[in-house]
Design goal:
Layout: H1 13-16, H2 56-63, E1 72-77, E2 83-87, H3 99-113, E3 121-123, E4 143-145, H4 146-154, H5 159-173, H6 182-185, H7 187-199, H8 222-232, H9 236-242, E5 246-253, E6 256-263, E7 274-280, E8 288-295, E9 298-305, H10 312-330
Antiparallel strand pairs: 1-2, 1-9, 3-4, 4-5, 5-6, 7-8, 8-9
Helix pairs in contact: 3-5, 3-7, 4-5, 5-7
Length: about 325
């Protein structure tokens, strides 16, 4: 099976022809998952099963973990991948725009591997912007750099930007076919998202689209997203983007250059030490948040899914972060 290359490796033509992995549903049996526990497999951060038997009340009474509204969460030590605490962290659920963490990760791997100019102009098709939800306010037939598109993906959480990235980069992976539906035009990119998920041992993850709008064939888990974020913190370009509070993009529209300013939806950036990653929300996934906290020698990755409200997710994250900081300071 094709394994996506490391950033300094090249994609072979044979690898690019590999089909998408077999589609699974969100409630499918996990018995068909690849067995990654045999000798020689990589350690999966936070793989302990202990916390799965505890309720949130048990975690609070036994270990002092604060009570939060999130139905799934994990706090990972970003320095070594240790699971500091978790609840329902392996449960397959929809994760809304946290999907875009993988979209950005794969896009940047492709940019490096195929030596694509980060400031190359990308074309916005009519189909790509016919989508609901959060938007970067792109118009059909706009022309915009890949660099700006990545900001439109991660700051305002543009579903349109996700489609444009997937469609344009799919054309670098495989010769484009214009007279087919968008979902098929972006399939090479979606397939690569799933290949990277397999390589990273994200065993409870499958992607069907690049933006995270509700679909039963798209799912992940808090633990898998923490594994992905552990990779992302080592990527300076992604970290530069997700740590910006705003970005001004230049777009060619109707033969004129216009400026668009995008503000980051992640309010955790207003607090000291918080420097990424991403917000998410759909009715089915609920309010979600992936957060990075760094101060002195402490590095925390916090994933919370399906919180009570968009406002409460900030409080949930701060509670878990403060608890973990105290725990690491005392150890």
């Amino acid at each position: 099976m094709f394994k996506p290359p490391l950033p300094n490796q090249r994609l072979s033509s044979k690898a690019l022809d590999q089909p998408m992995i077999q589609v699974r549903s969100i409630g499918s049996s996990q018995s068909n998952r690849p067995n990654r526990t045999s000798s020689g497999s990589r350690h999966r951060p936070g793989s302990s099963q202990r916390s799965l038997s505890f309720s949130k009340t048990d975690l609070h009474s036994k270990y002092g973990v604060p009570l939060v509204t999130a139905q799934n969460f994990i706090v990972m030590n970003g320095n070594n991948g240790q699971n500091l605490t978790s609840f329902n962290s392996k449960k397959r659920v929809q994760v809304a725009s946290l999907t875009k963490l993988m979209t950005s990760y794969v896009a940047i791997q492709l940019i490096r591997d195929l030596k694509i100019n980060l400031y190359q102009i990308m074309y916005v098709s009519y189909d790509a912007v016919q989508i609901s939800g959060t938007s970067a306010f792109l118009h059909p037939y706009d022309r915009i750099t890949l660099f700006d598109l990545l900001h439109g993906l991660m700051l305002p959480s543009g579903n349109d930007a996700a489609n444009v990235i997937a469609e344009n980069l799919s054309s670098f992976i495989k010769d484009p076919v214009s007279n087919i539906a968008l979902q098929y035009r972006i399939q090479p990119f979606i397939s690569l998202m799933n290949q990277y998920a397999l390589q990273l041992d994200m065993n409870d993850t499958q992607f069907y689209n690049p933006h995270g709008l509700s679909n039963d064939q798209s799912f992940s888990s808090a633990q898998d997203l923490a594994i992905l974020c552990k990779q992302i913190i080592n990527d300076p370009l992604i970290m530069e983007i997700v740590n910006k509070k705003e970005h001004q993009a230049t777009i060619q529209r109707n033969n004129k250059l216009i400026k668009l300013t995008w503000e980051n939806t992640n309010r955790m950036l207003d607090f000291e030490g918080y420097c990424g990653f991403k917000t998410g929300f759909t009715n089915k996934a609920g309010p979600c948040l992936a957060t990075l906290f760094k101060k002195d020698s402490i590095c925390l990755i916090i994933i919370i899914l399906n919180c009570l409200s968009k406002e409460v997710r900030w409080d949930d994250t701060l509670k878990l972060s403060n608890w973990a900081q105290r725990k690491l300071s005392l150890s």
